[in-house]
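Reproducibility note. Readers wishing to regenerate the assembly model reported in the main text can use the exact inputs given here. Chain order matters: entities are listed in the order in which they were concatenated for prediction.
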Amino acid sequence: MEDHFIELINVTKIYHQGDNPVVALDHINLNISKGEFVAITGKSGCGKSTLINIIGGLDSPGQGHVMINGEDTSLMDDQRLTLYRRDRVGIIFQFFNLLPILNLEENIALPYLLREGSNPPTAKMERLLHEMGLYERRYHHPHELSGGEMQRVAICRALINDPAIILADEPTGNLDSVSGKQVLEILRRLRNEQGKTIVLVTHSQEGAAMADRVLRMHDGKLL
Ligand SMILES: Nc1ncnc2c1ncn2[C@@H]1O[C@H](COP(=O)(O)OP(=O)(O)OP(=O)(O)O)[C@@H](O)[C@H]1O
Ligand SMILES: [Mg+2]
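Running the prediction on these inputs yields the following structure tokens for the assembly.
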């Protein structure tokens, strides 16, 4: 495995709310190899989502550096950061974040459309839909799907641009145990078969058991 694929150097994130600064991340140093599956655990408010958002370029580290394959994200201009978010990371959220007015296929196509200005190749879309067991439902809308199906749509959307990094923030938090297990197995397969680098925030034993390495956070620090 290629070392230093994702590297956080002394990352500190402080949110200023009124007079009370909240230290969400406190001098985080972290090194994730290419193709590694890392799980992050820790109680509510300890900084897990902040960490995911900073790795995914959705939020900026206040202090410190986030290096992706040797490139410092804090030195990227807006355009480069947009490309990073669009092409190199796929993010999966607890509440799926699908667009209700778009059907399943359109939801999945959206990141590709933003990149290419056209729909993804039919073969690619169909392969993903089949892999995730969604082909028959491709013209349905999110409200017609179960939670597990919605999360599998979100996984397809995260994969459509072939990113090297998959970030998943409690992706099983709203799923029953069977659908949750399916999602975890999909993540594991993405690592094993496609060499994706996975960072998974999870509260579940099963989630932690899937990972190559489990990191515990407490009050913005890695233990
Ligand atoms: N935009 C924000 N503005 C102010 N404070 C924030 C903001 N985002 C997060 N925080 C605070 O930063 C801390 C870490 O939040 P974060 O969402 O990373 O926790 P978490 O570990 O993901 O929690 P949970 O398990 O509940 O999702 C919390 O105290 C939270 O209130
Ligand atoms: Mg969170």
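We highlight two features of this model. The chain has a mean pLDDT of 94. The domain at 33-61+72-222 is CATH 3.40.50.300 (Rossmann fold).
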